[in-house]
Amino acid sequence: MESFVNLNVKKKRILGQHQNNMNILLVEDDYVSQLVISGMCKMVKWNLYIAPNGKEALKILENTQFNIILMDIQMHEMSGIEVAKVIREKEQLTGVHIPIIATTAFATSEDKLELINAGMDAYISKPIDLEKLKELILEYAK
Fold this sequence. Notes:
This protein is 54% helix and 17% strand. By secondary structure, the protein is of the alpha/beta class. It has a single domain (22-140), classed as 3-Layer(aba) Sandwich (Rossmann fold), CATH 3.40.50. Helix 3 (54-63) packs parallel to helix 4 (80-94). Mean pLDDT is 85; it is low at 1-18.
């Protein structure tokens, strides 16, 4: 039993090290969702950049590198799926893969399949649970 406890302590230290200095791009047009996710990221000391729409996200990605992208699916101008497809096309040229986690209120198996086919690495349902978000980011972030 004692060795199990020690392993957990080591695991927490390792996870804690990876949590800091995490650069995350949130692509979200809803102000309330921006505030909620921003608050969550502050709690775990992640650096959050917010793009209020897909076009702005693509501009930001031209000059800044991120560990992960949180992508709202339903946005004005450009949907999250359209933005993800553009990002994945550019990755074909650069060879650099940025994990994208879709943030969505949709949860049917058909919707999940569409998100994965569009290039999302994972998805999280809204309202977002902080513990689930942390797990996904630590799993997928580079």
